[in-house]
Amino acid sequence: MRVLVVEDDEGIAAGLKAHLRKLGWAADVTDGVTSAWAALCAEPFDLVLLDLGLRDGDGAELLRRLRQAPAQRLPDAALPVLIMTARDQVASRIAALDLGADDYMTKPFDPDELAARMRALRRRAVGRAQAHLRCGALELNPAARTLTQAGKLVDLSAREFSVLLALVEVRPRVLSRAQIEARLYNWDSVLDSNAVEVHVHHLRKKLGSEVICTLRGVGYFVPQERP
Length: 227
Ligand code: CA
What we know:
Helix content is 40%, strand content 21%. It has 8 helices and 13 strands. The protein has helices spanning 10-22, 33-42, 59-67, 90-98, 111-125, 158-170, 177-184, 195-207; strands spanning 2-6, 26-30, 47-50, 53-54, 57-58, 81-85, 103-106, 133-135, 138-141, 146-149, 152-154, 213-215, 219-221. A hairpin with a 2-residue loop joins strand 8 and strand 9.
């Protein structure tokens, strides 16, 4: 999952970025309304963590613009947004939710609770109610970042798990290499040109070659029904 953190407190932003990274999520940080809007127009994100009191304006303004964005273009007007702010008045929470925020956390918050809420938002965004994803003999647990195949735990690297999760979440849709990269790597990642191929290769070796299919020239997909 690729997350945009919009936060002007450098300490909080750095802490969040490190925490999300530990959870296997790629996070980019912007500190204002203008820079956040530019980032959202340029890259596909899966979720936004949005502070309200920003360096150059109010996060609510960014949310308003996002929800009014035209369909089929970046930024995605339906992008899940979780507000994180020190404003703890009920009225401010109601205003943000009615403006189109999906969830709201008051600072200071527990980072593990934040992560659980982010997973819940992601489930809703991809139309899934269950916390675990089942796909044939595979069962992925996004909270623990574990995978079992026919009930047996399979040892995956953080990136391998992220590639598989990205594909299983949208199955049987095809994701291009660039789409997978955009979900896994943030701006400061040093990227090998064949990184995604290498992860897919390892996943096939560990899970069987039929788990991930290649659509030549387009990308990769996990078939809906597996034998
Ligand atoms: Ca702030």
